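quick one
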Amino acid sequence: MKSLLTFPKGGVHPPECKAQTQGLAIETMPVPDELELILGQHIGAPCTPTVAKRADVGEGGLIGEVTKGLGVPLHAPIAGKIKDIGMSVHPIRVSAPSITIAVDREAQPVQYEKQNWQQLDSAQLLAKVHEAGIIGIGGAGFPTHVKLKPPANSPVDTLILNGAECEPYITADHRVMLEQAASVVEGARIILKILGIKKCFIGIESNKPDAIAEMTKTAEQASSPDCTIKVEALQVKYPQGSEKQLIQAVTGRKVPAGALPSAVGVVVQNVGTAKAIFDAVVYGKPLYEKVVTISGKGIGRPANLQVKIGTKLKDIVDYLGGLQPGLSKIIMGGPMMGFAVSSLEVPVTKTTSAVLFLTEDEIDTRPHGQCIRCGWCLEACPMGLEPKEIAIYVEARRAEDTAQFGVFDCFECGSCSYVCPAKRPLVQFVRLAKMKAKRPQ
Ligand code: SF4
Ligand code: SF4
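structure w/ iron/sulfur cluster:
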């Protein structure tokens, strides 16, 4: 039997905690009375509103655009009236500029018509991806149309769709692959045409055998002499879904420090992003809704919910039966890389993959202690860094001297913090070091 693929260095095995939601079909949440859309949902310049207060907007209508620099437009997820252009609670930056839409209950949903994308060339397809406001919805929110135009001096020959979903609790991509396999695979074919290449791998961790079977069957049907799409089963190991680790697992190619995947001829896209590209190109539908896993013992009913971007956590909580006794922490994203939030006023953005409502027995509340020099964090780091040294320098107020330990190669996966027996907040130390250290030229 062929052994499962994985990356060679570091990695950890946190409890998977996916049983609560992995068997739950995607459910569409009714639209709440109001949506709050943060203007800076992506990496790059935030959008400038293109609508005024009290204006009427239609479903899918443009409400914000980026006029200068990196970025993507923003669209109304539903018909309604612009109630406010102000500030919203932001999961990381405390508050951020936003547009509030009061939903029009009388409006009919838009019926998108299927279009023949085969006649479009690469530039036309890329323009559609840009116009639809698509960003990497499984990660940091990098504009997809930029990622699909790699530098001319880095020829790309391979596309990898990321279906690893290695973070504990999260099952949104799992359900998308299981229930919408044909759309994901057609999205992959569109990306291949944009890039002008013929080879695609879809990496899926082996804890999703039903998704592997469904995607394999669909990929085989879609493959032809012009285009091969192949599913690769991956070992269950965190952070298998991070770009550099996924590329090394699937192709054996190692992305050099500080370089982009295109340096080794690869472009990586999340499976959910491929589905968004399908919607944009085949149906002309902008990105304004997504599947989010809601889990943890602190919520009345866990679910894989399709929600409109801008839906507030309080509306999700009301829909799913309220908060449960013992709730201790709310995390947006997974427990390894997500952010704790303290308000239910926070709205879902294009990059929200999960919201976890965790009770005390689901989190580690022990206080952190001194480093006992066990070396476990070094063994766990997939980038071969020395988190303990970085932490010691930060504590000694010498964060600016940490570039020598490769802090800029840290992608904040949290593996080091997870294994540390002293519970040292190593990722937080590294984040601080990255802010203060000087980037090598
Ligand atoms: S958070 Fe950074 S330092 Fe820690 S294991 Fe991950 S890559 Fe290494
Ligand atoms: S895992 Fe924790 S205790 Fe062990 S060396 Fe690293 S920082 Fe120190």
